[in-house]
Prior knowledge:
Blueprint: H1 2-23, H2 38-55, H3 59-80, H4 87-106, H5 112-131, H6 138-157, H7 160-165, H8 172-189, H9 194-216, H10 224-244, H11 251-254, H12 257-278
Helix pairs in contact: 2-3, 2-8, 2-12, 3-4, 3-6, 3-12, 4-5, 4-6, 5-6, 8-9, 8-10, 8-12, 9-10, 10-12
Amino acid sequence: MTKIAKTTTATIPAITAGTRTAEAPPRRTGSPIIPPGIQPALITAVLAALIAVTADLARPALAVAILVLQAVTAAGWFRLNGMWPARQGIALAFLAGLVLDVALLATPGHRAPTIAVGTLGVWFVLILLQQMRHRGSADERLASLTATAASTVLTVLAAGYLAIAGTPAGSGPVVVGAVAVAVAAVVRAVPFPPIASVVVALLAAAGSGVVLAPLTGTGTGIGTDSMLLALAAGSCALMGLRVASYDFPSRFVHFTAGVALPLTAAAPAVYLLGRMLLG
Length: 279
């Protein structure tokens, strides 16, 4: 009896220690900043080309391209924040973008800011109602609320391309901004030294604005207005890439947030500078 008791007692700590080791999360080493790379950058360029081409066709066609951007933005932001699956939150954010796009198509372009703010106001109420059904802990509810609200804001902001196309500025700022984002994202993915890569990407984005100025009617002479717009869009694109690179992102994050955030981050700049400089 004594021998059996000793054996049992000696075994329990070993089992407990093994269980604790198995439950411990793996430690991540190295930098948490992992850039998306060239493949997501090329997909960003394809989506930017789709936006630029449809901008010259008709606003409903542009709205379809913007819907694609909004869908990828909503899904990517949730996954970037480590929340998956989050189908209800993603669907709610995407629906905000869809409603805003329809409203922008049905109203004059100068009313876009009012419509966007009104849409966000209604959706924040819906988000609060959705979170009331959350049965997780307080921290989980706060994280879910923050991610859903931020995803909704970004999805609404992505409609900036559609909003500026409905103003007297027309499709020119959309084309210039989208091309600048594509150029900046692709050049940034080229394996240059970090600081040099940023500088070259910004110069390439500004240069694309100069080239497109006479083609889009967005500037005279050397196309200063178009160059400033492209430089701002390229800068926002690099900031979007930086956000999508943070905190050990997965490949799914790279192919959603890494694709969409450069274009989404540039949308407000395209709208604001398009109104100020060109319309």
